[in-house]
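MODEL INPUT / OUTPUT PAIR
PAIR INDEX: 1
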Amino acid sequence: MASATGSGTAASASASPSGPKVHLVKAGSGGFKFEPAEIFNVSVGDTITFEFYPPDHSVARAEFESPCVPYEYTGKDKVGFWSTTQWVKTTEDITHWNLTINSTEPIFFYCAAPDSCLGEKMIGVINPNSTQTLAAQKKAIEGSIQVTPGDPIPKEGSATLHVPGASGSPTAAPAASGGRHSSLGSGAIAGIVVGAVAFLVICAALFFYVGRTKSLKEVLNRKNATVSTTGHDNFGPKSPGYPYSPVHNQADYNNLPPYAQHNGTDSHPPGWASPTAHPQHMSMMSAMSHTSQPSMADVKHTGPAELSSPGPHQQSFAAELEAPIKSPR
């Protein structure tokens, strides 16, 4: 099982021809990357010197297929390493951190700066082999989470952690038991209540409007039926069941005097005038005068003539007839 130890002392990237070698890895030089990202042929006892550039890079060990999670979080009794965050303002303040290698097995590492691993894929590997490669580790970043050593795994997230020597299927990090439960907030409940009340009000108004319209139609239909059965012309002839009765003739009868007296020698009383004859009566009088007109010789003075006032419902003349006076012989 691979292991490593680290020290925070500064060191230069040098190597002795007969002793252990020193391998220099730049962290953050010209971007979010380790340069080089793959270090081959590192022997036991060799030193990896990480050189940190601005502003806040670090290096932490990771397990294969768990690229952005601390190594010690992936299994019991596992010991990882971490340089802590290296705060560097300028290139004049560059810091170094040394890692001594005691195994030739692949050792993966990542930068724990915010979004460096997940977003920028700032990872590396020491002594990769044919199965545990840098390309496979980068592919495993998709769907993973990023955790800084010493911080807990987020409650809402989970990471697929690989344990070497297991049955082949990766194990998932345990989810926190204090996760949030899905529930409706007070604002959502209030919105639902308001919507339901508004719907009921609209339905009630619609039912009231329909009932009101139906009632008005029934009233109008009854009114139209009543008008059609009782409305008749007061001045024209009625249907066969209602005989015509001229009302204005009765008024004419009431205005006539009960009788009229006139002597041949008397003049008309003051203010007296013959009533105007109705056109129909005038035509009848004209016809009678042409058929039978008495001569003056046959007319005798008989005194005052009395004419009876016509009774109701009788045809009358509108003009009084004056009795002619026979001249003395």
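PAIR INDEX: 2
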Amino acid sequence: AIFENQGITEYTTRLFNRRLTRPNIIVLTNVRQDHTDTLGKTRTDIARSFARSVPAGTHVVSGEQHPVLHEYMRDEIDRRGGSIEQVEIPDEHEGLIGAETIHAVDAVLDIVDEPPLPADEIDAYLDAIQPTWTQLEDGRVFDAAEVNDIESTEMVRRTLVDDEHITPFVYLRRDRRGRTASFARYIELLFERDLIEEVHAGGASTRAFVENTDVPTERHGPEADADTVLTELLAEGRPVVFMGNTVEEFMREMQASIERRAKARRRTVATGEATGGSEATSAEVTEPADHK
């Protein structure tokens, strides 16, 4: 049986692992700065929470690639009678989003004496999940709000633009104060590195977000219209990246607005290609013969 531990505190994570499931193998994809108000303020604190939840006799397959964090978790888990291995990512997949996850699957298959995933399936999976821009008539957008943590959001940003300026839109939730604090620090870091000129913030706690950053911020209240906000974002003339939170009605409306505009652009492009092809064919047919 396979279970997903969705505990967001050290206690609930430990309760799930030690009392409710008692797993033989735990897959830890990575250690990211999310739920910092319940799991710990830093990645080291969060790694400690995860390590303390591992029951004796359980083996951990960890995709976390930071050597210091891995060593820290190994010491904690060893003391509790567990064991841990770090996922090995081949050179050709280094830096690809999702590489630690797919290779963690291979590690688990090896432990349970099952054949590894075919190499072409791994390549196809990784190719499919790499972020690409959604092209609209008046700009480019990418919705990274489902990612939730700042480390993964930064991986998405680097894949998409590297050093090009973006317009970030951070959607905030009242019940995710730790996430709000993490994204406030992340936005400040982008501003300090001259990777953004301003930020747009929506949802709850936007006032607190503004008060905790020194970045020019455009606030959008809870009653803001998603389609209008999208128009304002694209008017900045830079590619737009959504981040922070996604499980809110506003963000669902934003996703619907993006999809409508993307479909409209695809229709326009398809119509233009069809018209261009027809005109070329017509020109060939009606071109007068060269009489000598």
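PAIR 2 NOTE: The first helix runs from residue 10 to 21.
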